[in-house]
Amino acid sequence: MKKKCLMLLTVLALLLTGCGKTDVNDVIGDLQNKIEKSKGYVLTGNLEIVNNDDVYNYDVSSSYQDGDYYKISLVNTANDHEQIILKNDDGLYVLTRVSTQQKNLIV
User: Fold this and answer.
1) Fewer CB atoms inside 10 A, N or C side of the chain?
2) Contacts of 26 (CB under 8 A, 6+ apart)
3) Residue 68 per-residue DSSP state
4) Can you tell me whether residue 17 is helix, strand or coil?
């Protein structure tokens, strides 16, 4: 009998706590507070550039840290060329790296 009462109380408690009064505005407000308090973020995505008949695809990664420090990485998906834009206390830098992969040529 005690087990049944305990189980009934547990189910009742779960049902009551799951039916809170949270609306869209509360969720948006909480999200804005978290964004304002954050000290940094990382974003990733794909960039497609259309230039006349040519299409260039890039994998993009952007990192930001409080104090206006950031790093943006652009990697060309066709040939693995990478360009990095970096800002720190020393200044703003644009770095270009070519893939170090060696390709075997058939002669």
Assistant:
1) C
2) none
3) T
4) helix
In whole angstroms, give the CA distance from residue 91 to residue 31: 32
Two tokens, residue 56: 């260039």
The continuous run of DSSP H or E covering 14 comes out as: helix 2-18
Written as six digits, the tokens of 41 are 């973020």
Q: How far is CA 81 from CA 17, 34, 76, 78, in A?
A: 53, 35, 5, 8
- Assess contact for 46 and 58: CB atoms under 8 A: yes
Instruction: Copy the structure tokens of residue 34.
Output: 């978290």
Query: Residues in the chain, how many?
Result: 107
> pTM, whole model, 2 decimals?
0.58
Half-sphere exposure of 83 (CA within 13 A, CB side): 5
Task: Round the average pLDDT of the chain to a whole number and report it.
Answer: 83
- Neighbouring-strand partners of residue 87: 70, 92
| Res. 20 pLDDT band, cuts 50 70 90 | low
User: Longest Cα pair distance anywhere in the chain, in angstroms?
Assistant: 85
